[in-house]
Amino acid sequence: MELLYNIFVGPFAEMARAPDLLVQTLWEGLVSGVLYALIALGFVLIFKASGVFNFAQGIMVVFAGLTLVGLYEAGVPAFLALLITIGVMFALAVCIERAVLRPLVNQPDIILFMATFGLTYFLIGFGELVFGGNPKVMIADELYLPKGAVDLPMFGGLVSLQKIDIAAAVIASAMVAGLAVFFQKTRIGRALRAVADSHKAALSVGISLNQIWVIVWFTAGIVALATGIMWGARSDVSFALQIIALKALPVLILGGFTSVPGAIVGGLIIGIGEKLGEFYFAPAILGSALGRGVESWLAYFIALAFLLFRPQGLFGEKIIERI
Amino acid sequence: MSLRRIAIGAAAAALLGGTALTTVPAAAQETIYVPLLTYRTGPFAGSGIPIADGMHDYLRMLNERDGGIGGVKLAIEECETGYDTKKGVECYEATKGKNPVMYNPYSTGITLQLIPKAAVDKVPLLSMAYGLSASADGTVFPWIFNPPATYWDGASVFIRYVAEKEGGFNKLKGKKIGLLHLDAPYGKEPIPLLENLARQYEFELKLYPVPAQDMQNQGSVWLNVRRDRPDWIYLQGWGAMNPTAVKEAVKAGFPIGKLVGVWWAGGDDDARAGGPEAKGYKSLDFHAAGADFPVIKDIQKHVVDKGLSKYPKDKIGDNLYNRGVYNSMLIAEAIRNAQKVTGKKVVTGEEVRRGLETLNITEARLKELGMEGFAAPVRVSCEDHNGHHKVYVAEWDGTKWTKSTDWIEPMKDKVRPLIEAAAKDYAAKNTGWPKRTETCDRPS
């Protein structure tokens, strides 16, 4: 009985007791969710176009962020460093296509997946060699990213919205909208979708797989750069950031590996769900001592719970194999 | 074999060769082999790099300036652990055949794994101000040393400091004190002592664990802080967790002067991350920051200026760099002591254990070492492998760490009985834990 109370009454009573904290929690969840969605978007783009789960997406976030800050520290003006970093991400996409993907055409998916493992460790080593292991401070001011907070009096309390978080939400939303238009309205976008549906069919109508792969890895690189800038501005740019990329896994499980809207919705559900779980439900159910620090596994629990009802994820395609 | 295969093979060999080049010359007959388990890569590299460089540069300075210790050159070899326990144990196994005189695991997780091996392999462990607090009991852990203070000493100094700021120990009653800690053996280490003190002084202890994968994603933790409104927070973080915590504290509007880090949360980059608002952030410390000491000047002259250091010139004297210097000073003094105790020049691990156990670094000795005002005297004994020495509270002034209090005595009367009980408990739980048979030398 007490357990039921702790699940169905206690947390909600706590929410009603301090509604300003609830709004703050939802906002924090929303921002985390948007950032998870950005990382997940990088995975989805590559999975859609090549069927490869790109384990290297996390290190691409770090690599892009370090390149940007590293160039700036070397004396390159901030916006020029940004442009050069975009160029570096393009060069990386070309190298990956030439050195990793092209030689592995027609190999089983698991081989490509393992290749992205290799790519991850190569980029970690290469990044550490070039930029060192020290964390770097993101050049948020130089890129004119806002700082400070907007404090909103609400429900007798105060809700504090960090301007960098607002910027992250706006930039992420703009990127998602831009990608949606790119996918739906442009010729290349249509070609990408064709490749996603069937490599052979796409090849038969003259679509260049190699060109598409470069474009999609480059786009994922741009997404990684945006993620690196936003996340780096919130904390630091360090190799620890790549671990956060693993948070995209439950987002993908939830949203489906092939759906851009799924990445967004999944990200938001995971972001808000883990914050509510950590803040309200876990302490009520597990007690204040045990209920702290559950955030790291709660996201996976939420995703697995969804899978019970929709094994293909919220927006994933239901695959029916005919025997 | 095709040209392509040859090229791939050559590239792989070059890569492997490159890795091997990072190591130092193999220990020759007339050298003393000092392996350093360091981490310059991975999520904790931000803290690991300055310490690794400080440790390396001091020992290298002894080689360059004095020709080693007692006329015997030191063979210094780094092994990269990435702060990963498994890799740390691999480093230990890979180097233990080279007659190491001591191990410095630089990770509580690795230390816990190596503790049972030390007595078997006859190589002492120096876990300087980290590791298992209970290992300060030399009667149970003759091969483990953790001067100058344990995590329990640190936590007790923090509580003493809070009591002083609040107007006395009786004012702690009803206060909320938070422990923001890495959810790993290192981060959890001060919990038993803080729980004990919470019962005694009737303050409420709030725990805020941060899983390693969420070191840079502490939003939820700080929501909890906002709800609980702790009066003080003690930060037992490491690596990327520390700068993020300082940033989040600023963001959450937590009074920065009431956030006090353990000595491992006192890196320059940790505080700098919080920007100008981090001014007033505090951290415990047991040595000075800055380059204005003869020992650091010698390092600059004999190592940095000769291009033998990997650390940026303008950062020499950073707090964690000096931590590495201090650690290597303990290593060197133990070796020197072992030479004195045994009368031999090339000493073994067993002999350096004796050197550690008779360590007595006085004010006069510190002056000789160029460390006057840099650190406080250190003394350990056969029974007490720590010494429970005084530490002080350092404050970030916006650009550097400054000493903001006098040396503060740990609550030894509270800490020592807990250490002895925990040591007995450790021995009881580890069936077959050897009874101390090592003889006790007189202090040097």
UniProtKB/TrEMBL annotation, chain A:
Keywords: Amino-acid transport, Cell membrane, Membrane, Transmembrane, Transmembrane helix, Transport. Its main location: membrane. CDD domains: TM_PBP1_LivH_like (cd06582). It is found in: Cell membrane. The chain crosses the membrane at residues 29-47, 52-72, 78-101, 110-131, 164-183, 212-233, 239-272, 284-309. It is a multi-pass membrane protein. InterPro entries: ABC_transp_permease (IPR001851), BCAA_transport_permease (IPR052157). Belongs to the binding-protein-dependent transport system permease family. LivHM subfamily. This is Branched-chain amino acid ABC transporter permease. It comes from Chelatococcus albus.
TrEMBL record, chain B:
The keyword Signal applies. Residues 31-398 form the Leucine-binding protein domain. Keywords: Signal. It comes from the Bacteria. Pfam families: Peripla_BP_6. Residues 1-28 form the signal peptide. InterPro entries: Leu-bd (IPR028081), Peripla_BP_I (IPR028082). Belongs to the leucine-binding protein family. This is ABC transporter substrate-binding protein. It comes from Chelatococcus albus.
